[in-house]
Amino acid sequence: MDKSTPNNKPNMPKFNMNWLYIFVIITLGVVFFAGGNGLMSASAGVERDYTTFKQYVAKGYGTKVVVNKSTNTLRMYVSPDHIRDIFKQGTQEVGTAPYVTVEIGSVDKVESFLDQAVQQKKIASYSYENKSGNTLLDILGSIAPWLLFFGIWYFLMRRMGGGAGGAGGVFNVGKSKAKLYEKANEMGITFKDVAGQTGAKQEVQEIVEFLKNPKKYTDLGGKIPKGALLIGPPGTGKTLLAKAVAGEAGVPFFSMSGSDFVEMFVGVGASRVRDVFRQAKEKAPCIIFIDEIDAVGRARSKNPAMGGNDERENTLNALLTEMDGFGTNSGVIVLAATNRVDMLDKALLRAGRFDRQIHVDLPDLTERKAIFLVHMRPLKLEKNLDIDLLARQTPGFSGADIANVCNEAALIAARHNSKDVSKQDFLDAVDRIVGGLEKKTKVMTAEEKRTIAIHEAGHATISWFCEHADPLVKVSIVPRGQALGAAWYPPEERPITTKEQMLDEMCSLLGGRAAEELFTGHISTGAMNDLERATKSAYGMIAYAGMGDRLPNICYYNNDEYSFQKPYSDTTAKTIDEEVLKMINGQYARAKQILTEHREGHNQLAQLLVDREVIMAEDVEKIFGRRPWVSRTQELLEQQEKAQPRLEDMPEEVKKAQAEHEARVAREGSDKASDL
Hints:
The chain has 676 residues and is of the alpha/beta class. It has six domains: 116 residues, name from scop, CATH 3.40.1690; 30 residues, no CATH class; 186 residues, 3-Layer(aba) Sandwich (Rossmann fold), CATH 3.40.50; 71 residues, Helicase, Ruva Protein, domain 3 (Orthogonal Bundle); 188 residues, Methane Monooxygenase Hydroxylase, Chain G, domain 1, CATH 1.20.58.760; 32 residues. It is built from 25 helices and 14 strands. The strands form three sheets. Strands 6-8-9-10-7-11 form a six-stranded mixed beta sheet. It has a five-stranded mixed beta sheet with strand order 1-4-3-2-5. A three-stranded antiparallel beta sheet has the order 13-12-14. Strand 9, helix 11 and strand 10 form a beta-alpha-beta unit. Helix 7 runs parallel beside helix 9, helix 15 crosses helix 16 and helix 20 packs across helix 21. The radius of gyration is 42 Å and the shape is elongated. The N terminus is likely disordered.
């Protein structure tokens, strides 16, 4: 053994399933066609003249004779003891019941000869048959075993190729499974169908320009990008955006998933990668779209014992080679989508492979409104539906979530036998998706109901008097899903979050538990979810955001997937726990202080909840008065309104044109009314 590499292990040969299937086919062939005892074994026959037949009978070679009157022939079946005397071979070669065929002239003479042979015990018996010869049946009978054999062989080959819908058998197992859309109108998706995502659409529109007019860029010395990676949470429209690119460019579009490269056979994934790129080069200019690329593009492990997979890594290596092996201006662009970009191999993300990373984020307020308009096209809506309100009620929703809201609203309207979909149907759909199905049949005592009302009123009171807490929408004590009650706050969409904002949100979360302790004298398990969220928020502030008093400006975030130890010492862990406990207890005491100051208003709010079960922000405003702070969303809307040009600020020509337009519209309306 070489001492320099003492831990080297011999490379063991990989087991290939192809050999197993070939062995099965050979075994079946032997079983079907082997002579003797095989399943399809056939006994041999020879032709002899009548004189030789009489000699065989005289020597006792035969066992029985069958005379065919229709064809004037007979068959003498040979005794096993005398097979070698006639055929010069054993039973393994000619079968267990070989026979001799003889043409005869007169049946009567043969009958008398056979009677004499039976009396002399030369043969055991004889019989007659009247079957006429059928050449077609004989041919079919001879080729039937071969047809059966090839049928079994074809079935096994199809199974080896991935079933009936596979890539075409064992010899085509390495063929790509990509779906090819030759024309853009096959999908019928353009940028008009993609609402919002202005930044992402801007990026991919440039890719469309590359494909439509590459000479514009190459004349200046520029190079067409090799690929673009669409990154974003699930449901944000990454796949839809890629289809829109193909639709706008009007070029062939190869669509496949990352899992399509994975197969049970060794080397198939790499072969399919090479095949799809070969087809793409033939159809250039075109687009290859790989959805969920993290299935094959996951980072390669340095340690084989940590989940390394040779087949997956071989597929990734083939993908890396193909993407980097393109001609500079081949006209083939690779689009890929993933929501786990942190798991991808660094070699895949470098410039020259995926030159661009396009972030497809969750839509903001304006984009959500545009997405609502797209998904509302097929719906029958009530007049003057407030879409701005729906957009404000759905922060954090992806495009798929908004599509689900629209569909759920239509189902709710149909359930209520409505002729159109109303605002309330949409609000009920949002509640249904976020909170779950209402459980109005759940039985509760009056004391339990009051406890839940006090808990939810505590949340509402604290959020009303905390400047940075999310604005209240409504409070409900109707059970939904796993929750017995809920206070609805559309979270503020902030680019950054300050310490004061996080502390106010934590105080609001602890308001329910604080109200229970103050006004009922006991605490319950209803605050488990609130405590979990508050604890996670506190740990994030102390350990990650560096917002602790004793551990300021320190981040202990560790992105190592295979790390089995904390990135800090036990002493630091104790300090973090103490800081978290101090922060949560401080906000809990603050919550109790606010509730004590507004005890009367809280009791009124709790009683209103018991009576009505659901109250809105307007009801809270009647009790506590107008909230002194404006929400961030409202502030942004006011800024947009101020930025829009007003008619009063326009020149006189514009004012005059607007007045003429309004007069013309009014005149046309009166003319139509008179016609009616």
